[in-house]
Design goal:
There is one protein chain. The protein has about 220 residues and is of the alpha/beta class. Helix content is about 55%, strand content about 15%. It folds into two domains: about 140 residues, Rossmann fold; about 70 residues, Winged helix-like DNA-binding domain superfamily/Winged helix DNA-binding domain (Arc Repressor Mutant, subunit A), CATH 1.10.10.10. The longest helix has 15 residues. It is elongated, with a radius of gyration of 18 Å.
């Protein structure tokens, strides 16, 4: 029996996957959670889980950082990322964080089951829908993305710092890594929040993930 849980703040997504998996006797949806922090608390209680479906854009603790912590503390658990976004940089970030598969939230039942089978065999899996989006994005030039962005353009330094913030680096760690002062990092943080219209760090991270504003080489 493959034991599965899901972390997604959209209840309909979690319920849909749970209903789908209920058709298979060898798949057991153990629990669902609204965010990554609650999921980690559950895992730390000693519950045995084989596969985690993980939304990327969640409150409190985003999917990227949740994935890193799962792989660090529970390396045998397979992580299948869920997203509506097929941007190259975000896919790279998730796989770099340890994800075993990356699925579009609209993936067909057969593809979801295939992803589970593949990761349980120790393989990586990228859904066909995401592959198509990656190919499309490769054909789109960078200037077009900038024109379509609803936000003022971030500087290279701001993108660099934003990417590190998403990776849960502290202000002091960012300052040390970039050889700049603590105050300079805080100034950049405030400027980024203003440009993105974010009220707090969580909102800034959510917007960064949703609009693919991160550095590709993180």
């Amino acid at each position: 029996m493959i034991k599965i849980c899901i972390a997604d703040d959209h209840q309909l997504v979690a319920e849909g996957i749970k209903l789908l998996l209920s058709e298979y006797e060898n798949l057991d949806m153990v629990a669902s959670f609204q965010n990554g922090r609650v999921l980690l608390d559950f895992l730390n209680q000693g519950h045995h889980i084989d596969v985690v479906f993980l939304d990327i854009n969640m409150p409190e603790l985003n999917g990227i950082e949740t994935c890193k912590r799962i792989k660090n503390d529970f390396p045998d658990i397979k992580v299948i990322a869920l997203s509506m976004i097929g941007e190259n940089n975000l896919i790279k970030l998730m796989f770099k964080s340890g994800a075993d598969a990356y699925l579009h939230k609209n993936a067909a039942k057969e593809e979801i089951i295939l992803a589970i089978q593949e990761v349980m065999l120790g393989k990586k899996y990228l859904s066909q829908e995401m592959t198509n989006q990656v190919l499309f994005n490769d054909q789109s030039n960078h200037s077009a993305k900038i024109v379509n962005s609803p936000f003022p353009k971030l500087s290279d330094r701001e993108i660099q710092i934003l990417t590190m913030i998403v990776g849960e680096k502290t202000t002091q760690e960012i300052a040390e890594n970039l050889f700049i002062s603590f105050g300079t990092v805080e100034t950049h943080r405030r400027n980024i929040m203003t440009k993105l219209g974010a009220k707090n760090t969580a909102g800034m991270v959510r917007t960064a993930l949703e609009y693919n504003l991160l550095s590709p080489d993180k």
